[in-house]
Design a protein that fits this description.
about 50% helix; about 80 residues; single chain; two-stranded antiparallel sheet; DUF1289; DUF1289 domain-containing protein; mainly alpha; about 5% strand
């Protein structure tokens, strides 16, 4: 779980190029998924979303760069990343 009071960062890694059938080449989210993540308030919902996203990346392929970038983002914010990452 994330440290108390610390929000889990967005899975976005600031690439934001939607070229793979509407999926970002950086994080695999669609524009609709980005809006959904922003609307999630409960940490357990955010973690479940990120776990789902990791599975989506695995299914789509070519997202091996994301895990390292997201782990760095979590470390910078002082938040424990989801276990599935």
């Amino acid at each position: 779980m994330g440290k108390k009071g610390k929000k889990l960062p967005s899975p976005c890694i600031d690439v934001c190029k939607f070229r793979r059938e509407g999926h970002c080449i950086g994080c695999s989210m669609t524009k609709a998924q980005k809006k959904i993540f922003k609307a999630l308030k409960k940490p357990e919902h955010q973690r479940a979303f990120i776990e789902m996203l990791a599975h989506q990346q695995s299914d789509l392929g070519k997202y091996s760069h994301w895990t390292e970038a997201y782990l760095k983002k979590c470390a910078k914010k002082g938040v424990t990343p989801p276990i599935a990452v």
